[in-house]
Specification:
Helices cover 16% and strands 43% of the residues. It is an alpha/beta fold. The chain has one domain. Strands 1, 2, 3, 4, 5, 6 and 7 form a 7-stranded mixed β-sheet that branches. It is globular, with a radius of gyration of 12 Å. The model has no long low-confidence stretch (mean pLDDT 92).
Length: 89
Amino acid sequence: MNHVVAVHLAPNGTKTEHIQELIWVADNFVGGRASVQTMVDFLRKNPGQLVVSSKESTAVVQVVEANPPYIRSARDSSVSDNLLAITKF
């Protein structure tokens, strides 16, 4: 499983559609930095293989088929989007 550990938002961005880049780590401690488009492509081929954990919960990251496509965490018990609750860089 791959875990998002930090996100980078566009200048003045506040929503998941403003995420431009992310840092991820796999269970085997291999990781990297990737653009949202790279992760959209990955998730289209590997749905359910990217998660994000906040203080409150863990959620699967999904693709939103918009123009351009973006990512968001699946609805869970937390009150905020998990991707926006983690570290920003």
